[in-house]
Design a protein that fits this description.
The complex is a heterodimer of chains A (115) and B (113). By secondary structure, chain A is mainly β. Chain A is built from no helices and 11 strands. Classes of the chains: A mainly beta (115), B mainly beta (113).
Chain lengths: 115, 113
């Protein structure tokens, strides 16, 4: 199994509070991704990183920010959580090698509930 | 944005039956992927398809990449209890230098023993 951990695994918070989710990898992979999973939508890309301090927006980035100060850590922050951000959040990593297919490996997920 | 339409959304079958699910897209993808998600875990890659028309097998799983590069199907033969889970199709594309995935809505498979 790819070495990916997410913390916390479960969190309940209140509307308006800030929340930070952490993804940690031990594979030294270049690319890291944050997705959210909601019924009827599959997984949707929030933000991704292609290196330390290099990040870009995904499909559903509004209300989220990210940071990557070290290769192994990718943080997702909800500055002011809303009920619409209740979801299961997955981190993924990919080696990003030039040419050919680069598999994305997924972490175990964080279930976030915003009351 | 890009969107994949996956069907059926759910399936209830008897152990030993064969399963078929498919995925269509309005966009062309160069790589199609099929993932399985067990309860409480992240998705795991089952099969990757790289060429239009390609038919690939992995044990009891068979998947095909459509000729138009806009569709794919996954078949599971002789289902067993551990096949229970959610199956996702995904199309891979490159944007801003990064390889990204767009997922279908998922097919939830339930098996009655």
């Amino acid at each position: 199994d790819a070495g990916i951990t997410q913390s916390p695994r479960h969190k309940v918070t209140e509307t308006g509070t800030p929340v930070t989710l952490r993804c940690h990898q031990t594979e030294n992979h270049r690319y890291m991704y944050w997705y959210r999973q909601d019924p009827g939508h599959g997984l949707r890309l929030i933000h991704y990183s292609y290196g330390v301090k290099d990040t870009d927006k995904g499909e559903v980035s509004d209300g989220y920010s990210v940071s990557r100060s070290k290769t192994e850590d990718f943080l997702l922050t909800l500055e002011s959580a809303t009920s619409s951000q209740t979801s299961v959040y997955f981190c993924a990593i990919s080696a990003g090698l030039a040419g050919g297919f680069n598999e994305q490996f997924f972490g175990p997920g964080t279930r976030l509930t915003v009351l | 944005g890009q969107q994949l339409n996956q069907s059926p959304q759910s399936m209830f079958i008897q152990e030993g039956e064969d399963v078929s699910m498919n995925c269509t897209s309005s966009s062309i993808f160069n790589t199609w992927l099929w993932y399985k998600q067990d309860p409480g875990e992240g998705p795991v890659l089952l099969i990757a398809l790289y060429k239009a028309g390609e038919l690939t097998s992995n044990g009891r799983l068979t998947a095909q990449f459509g000729i138009t590069r806009k569709d794919s199907f996954l078949n599971i033969s002789a289902s067993i209890p551990s096949d229970v889970g959610i199956y996702f199709c995904a199309g891979q594309y490159k944007s801003s230098g990064a390889q990204k995935l767009v997922f279908g809505q998922g097919t939830r498979l339930t098996i009655n023993p």
